[in-house]
Amino acid sequence: MLGCLFLLGAPPPALAADNSAYGGIRELNNGTLLGGDGTGTAKFTIHSVRLDLVKQARDLNGTLLPSGGSVDAGSEIYFLLLVDNPTEAPAPDIRLSDPINSDAFVYTPGSLEMSVVPTGTDPMAGPWTPLTDELDPAGTADYGSITTSVVDTIDRLTFGADPEQTNLRYQLEAGHQLVVRFRVRVK
Fold first, then answer.
1. Least confident window among 18-22, 75-79, 123-127
2. Signal sequence: where (predicted)?
3. What is the mean pLDDT of residues 77-87?
4. Chain segment 44-75, per-residue pLDDT in tens
5. Domain boundaries along the sequence of the chain
6. Rounded to an integer, what distance in angstroms lies between the CA atom of residue 113 and that of residue 79?
7. What does the pLDDT average to over 95-117?
8. pLDDT at 19
9. Bond before 66 cis per omega within 30 degrees
10. How many of the other CB atoms lie within 10 Å of CB of 129?
11. Are 158 and 152 in contact (CB under 8 A)?
12. Bridge partners of 48?
C-alpha cells in the first residue's frame, strides 16, 4: 500500500499536468492553435490519480484474518479487493485482475459481488451487488467476471474493462472505496 501525507484532513489532490498542442496544419490558424506555439486554446490538462489497492482475507462473519495466520482446510473465507479514491476527482477507468491460487483455494461459484462505500467506511458494510461469473460476449452484463486459465479451473478474477474480457468500464467516484469480494474454500 502506498503511503500519502494528508494535511489537515483534506483529501489528496489529483495529479495534473498542463499540456499544449504545438504546430499548425499547412500554416493555417484554425482558431485552436495560435501561431503554432501552444498559446492558443488547444491546451488540455491530464489528470492522474494514485489509488491504493489492498487485498484482504476475512472470515464469513467479516472479521479480518491476521496476515500470515492459518485457516483450516475446508473452511470458506472471503477475499476482498479494496480500491480507495480519497481524492476530489473521479477515477474513470478502474481495472483489476486477481489470480486465484488454485493449488490452495477453490472459488465458490456465484459469490462474486461488489460494493461502493464512502472512504473510511467499513468495507463489509455493503450494500452488495452480485456480479456474474461468466463472460458476456456483448460486454453488457456487469463489471466483473471469473475466468479459467487452466482447463476446468476457475482461477482469475477481472473487474473493469479488461482487454481480454468483456466487463463494463467502471468509474470510481471521488471520496469512495470500491470493494470487490468473492468466497473461496481452502484446500
1. 18-22
2. 1-16
3. 96
4. 566 666 788 999 999 999 999 999 889 999 99
5. 14-48, 50-186
6. 11
7. 94
8. 57
9. no
10. 13
11. no
12. 15
**What CATH number was assigned to the domain covering residues 50-186?**
2.60.40
pLDDT, tens digit (0-9, with 9 covering 90-100), for 166-175: 788 999 999 9
CA distance 86 to 100: 28
**What's the chain's average pLDDT?**
80
CA proximity to 146, closest of 185, 93, 183, 116 = 183
Instruction: Convert the chain into a string of H (helix), E (strand) and C (coil).
Output: CCCCCCCCCCCCCCEEEEEECCCCECCECCCCCCCCCCCCCCEEEEEECCCEEEEEEECCCCCECCCCCCCCCCCEEEEEEEEEECCCCCECCCCEEEECCCCCEEECCCCCEEEEEECCCCCCCCCCEECCCCCCCCCCCCCEEEEEEECCEEEEEEECCCCCCCCCCCCECCCEEEEEEEEEEEC
Task: Locate 181 and state its grid cell.
Answer: 469480494
Unique residue bearing C-alpha cell 474454500: 185
Q: Which residues pair with 99 in a beta bridge?
A: 156
